[in-house]
Amino acid sequence: MKHTLLKAVATTALTFGTWASAHAVDLQFYFPVAVGGAAAETIQSLTDEYVAANPDVTIDAVYTGSYQDTVAKVITAARGGNPPQLSVILSVDMFTLIDEDLIMPFDDYLPGEEGKAWLDGFYPAFMENSQTGGKTYGIPFQRSTPVLYWNKEAFKEAGLDPETPPATWDEMVEYSQKLVQKDASGNVTRWGVRIPSSGFPYWLFQGLTTENDVILANADGNKTNFDDPKVVEALQYMVDLSGKYGVMAPGIIEWGATPKAFFEGQTAMMWTSTGNLTNVRTNAPFEFGVAMLPANKRRGAPTGGGNFYLLKGATDEQAQAAVDFVKWITAPEQSAKWTMATGYVAPRAETWETDTMKAYAADFPPVLVARDQLEHAVAELSTYQNQRVTSIFNDALAAAITGQKDPEAALKEAQSKADAILAEYR
After folding, report:
1. CA-to-CA distance for 338 and 324, rounded, in angstroms?
2. How far is CA 341 from CA 249, 279, 281, 284, in A?
3. CATH number of the domain where residue 256 is located
4. pLDDT reported for residue 67
5. Taking a C-beta distance cutoff of 8 angstroms, is the pair 42, 341 a contact?
6. What residue numbers bound the domain in which 275 lies?
7. Among 107, 121, 215, 271, whose Cα sits 20 to 30 Å from the Cα of 127?
8. How many independent structural domains does the chain possess?
């Protein structure tokens, strides 16, 4: 469904950023969300606000569904000769978009020291999936990390300190064993922990690999390390949570059903995106906590979520207007509104220094967990031919989780297949 934002005539025109025009510039903006809900409403409100203050710009905002839907629609539109000028697409799709020759670097429209200073204002962890070859192709916006959520009431029932989440892999097993509940017939009614393995299985699993001090792919996007012994060890731990320790449901665990399972008491802890933070705050019928993922050899988590991309085919005037809009919507007050509405991590440190965010964080401290975890974060798995490579890796994880293959064999096969795809990019 498309919602067109018509040109607004303001009594006093305010110009944000460095760009102004003598005549209207039309922009089309693809945004990965289904119509409705806090994300769509907030983007709508912010875009309306920008257009009202910049009557020389019109923005046609097209809500494009999932991230996968969005990148497919961008590629289709580009091949048809009618790409949008701007889109939010997964940060990990950067190499694919470059390979398809669909995007332009932002650098050309951010000249001089002022442009460099603005780019330097984003958290370095988010920029790892935004820059390559000395160029900036993505601007962080809808960004996240996975975090641990725990049910404080369940902790009390199990004799655990409700204010102290597990800090290590061993503690997560130990706590989970105390949190598991069974009925009179021996059937589990509450699991200790839930780590989803559908939807984005590689992403949450990357929490485990990062904590085991191994990187899944190089920064150039042309080499993976799927069969590294540390990756095998991390997958064995994930498999053991169900098989050896009996603290997590066996088989594939659904991403989308996980928050509901947490709300309904089917699991005492869950790993999911900080993008679920507002959802949990709104719907959890119990007191809950949020923590960094538990450490093993180190702390750590992958970053995730979407970046703004500038599409080829835009005129210089359209591109500069699009960059101006991106600078405005990632500025402190607008970014604060977005974070409070969704739970995504404000990608610039200056946002967290606003009175708005300070007050929000004082009222709801869990919002700071993902931000603080950025110090330990790494780039989300991203390569050329990213969807093919991650699909291979996800299949390997599924084969191990469902017991079809042992972790080492599954990952060795995945590495071989990834090598065959990526060899031409080295």
Report:
1. 18
2. 32, 10, 11, 17
3. 3.40.190.10
4. 87
5. yes
6. 146-302+385-425
7. 271
8. 2
